[in-house]
Write a structure and sequence with these properties.
There is one protein chain. By secondary structure, the chain is of the alpha/beta class. It contains seven helices and five strands. The chain has a domain of about 120 residues: HUPs (Rossmann fold, 3-Layer(aba) Sandwich), CATH 3.40.50.620. The longest helix has 11 residues. It starts with a strand and ends in a 23-residue tail after the last helix. Strands 3-2-1-4-5 form a five-stranded parallel beta sheet, sandwiched between helices.
Length: about 180
């Protein structure tokens, strides 16, 4: 029987920290399902300037990664309902979450599953990326100024990110 791994988040602007976490999560099972907060849910959590990328764009980017098998969008501010629906064998969050804080951990463990808080790559955060784009430097901005600045200075992704072959799905376009 296939071992299903589940993780969740906003995944607003994908960065190497996200890729590393998703690759680590995928190694814990046979199938990785990623739950992403809907646009309304992200706004409720992060504020009116977010998300930068809409939910369908975020879903498409995640589905382009070899590690990700499925993406589900949820409207609530927590993944509690989707965790109960999916009933994963493994539940994963980044190392900034204690296992006791991971939403759905009690449910997964009560059903014989495993819960992991995986180490994060240092120096990567979506707020930091937005701060560098908006501010032109290498610093993060607070959420109040982020909301104002991101509305006045939209982020338009351009160029080729040069994704390593390990992260590309079979049949994807490569240069």
């Amino acid at each position: 029987m296939a071992k299903t791994v589940f993780t969740n988040g906003c995944f607003d602007i994908l960065h190497p920290g996200h890729i590393d976490l998703l690759n680590q999560a995928r190694l814990l099972g046979d199938r990785l399902i990623v739950g992403i907060n809907s646009d309304a849910s992200v706004r409720a959590i992060k504020g009116p300037g977010r998300p930068i990328n809409d939910q369908e764009s975020r879903k498409a980017v995640l589905l382009g990664l070899r590690a990700v098998d499925e993406v589900v969008i949820f409207d609530e501010t927590t993944p509690e309902n989707i965790v109960r629906e999916i009933r994963p064998d493994v539940l994963v969050k980044g190392g900034d979450w204690q296992i006791s804080e991971i939403v759905g951990a009690d449910f997964v463990q009560a059903n014989g599953g495993e819960v992991y808080s995986l180490p994060l790559l240092d120096g990567y955060s979506t707020s930091g990326v937005i701060g560098r784009v908006v501010g032109g430097g290498r610093w993060a901005v607070d959420s109040d100024s982020l909301s104002e600045q991101s509305e006045n200075h939209p982020v338009i992704p351009t160029g080729d990110i040069g994704m390593p072959p390990l992260l590309r799905k079979e049949g994807s376009i490569t240069k």
